[in-house]
Amino acid sequence: MVNAVIMASGNGSNAIELIKLEKELDNINFKFIITDNKDAGIINKGKSLKKDVFLFENKNNKLEHEEKILNKLKSENIEWIFLAGYMRILSSDFINHFYDDDLDQAKIINIHPSLLPDFKGKDAYEQAFKAKVNNSGVSIHFVDAGIDTGKIITQKEFPLIKGESLENFKKRGLKLEHDLYPKVVKNIDKFIETKCKEDIYEI
Ligand code: GRF
After folding, report:
1. Minimal CA–CA distance to 4: which of 151, 178, 184, 179?
2. What's this model's pTM, rounded to 2 decimal places?
3. What is the rounded distance in angstroms from the CA atom of residue 42 to the CA atom of residue 39?
4. How far is the CA of 12 from the centre of ligand 1 (A)?
């Protein structure tokens, strides 16, 4: 059993899906949740699922902020980090602490609501919607020092329906996210065994 943590800044719907999955997992233990936002919905949601949620607010000093989080993660022997709507860019120093030679990746995974490399960064659903794409999607990827540039693990497409609202488009995307992220976590051993060498995993 390896220790993992979920980091989230907002509503936390993806974080909750991962926690719900925990009872089916024999390889990953989500020890707690970390948030950087005192108003994050995940604080109460996490607690209602009996998960500790630790708040690390950023007082405008990124280095100190990351150091505090890092100390907590180290003291709890955390091996994997799952970002679920965590709204900060992690520094390469922070990421390197989780680098795994075998995987040739840091053990930090993120979910992003677009078909990367399209629409990186914030408000990706809005970006895709405004661009009137035919197909949008969800990507799950390893985290590197760039913004949504790490190695893609898997992606799922979904079409933009003609005439639908942004709200509806986002709702459908989020539903897909809730399906995909737990599946990736369930398959984590497969990625380790194959050293993550496959281009895109069909899961
Ligand atoms: C999701 O769309 C996720 O892909 C993005 O931020 C949103 C977080 O939603 N990175 P939630 O907090 O998990 O509900």
Report:
1. 184
2. 0.95
3. 9
4. 7
- 46, 78 contact by CB (below 8 A): no
CB contact set of 54 (below 8 Å; sequence gap of 6+): 32, 33, 34, 35, 72
**pLDDT at 201 exceeding the cut of 70:** no
Task: Give the residue, by CA position, lying nearest to ligand 1 atom 10.
Answer: 85
Specify whether the CB–CB gap between 25 and 53 falls below 8 A: no
Query: What is the spatial order of strands in the sheet that 28-35 belongs to?
Result: 53-55, 28-35, 2-7, 80-83, 108-112, 135-142, 152-159
Is the shortest distance between the CB of 12 and ligand 1 below 6 Å? yes
Mean pLDDT of the chain: 94
Q: CA dist 156 to 76, 92, 98, 105, Å?
A: 33, 28, 26, 22
Ligand 1 atom closest to 113 (CA) = 4
Q: Which of 9, 14, 109 to mutate to test the pocket of ligand 1 (most atoms within 8 A of CB)?
A: 14
Q: Name the 3-class secondary structure at 107.
A: coil
* Amino acid making up residue 34: I
Phi-psi domain of 167 (left: phi exceeds 0; alpha: psi -120 through 50; beta: other) = alpha
Q: Report the separation in Å between the CA atom of 5 and the middle of ligand 1, taken as the mean of its atom positions.
A: 16
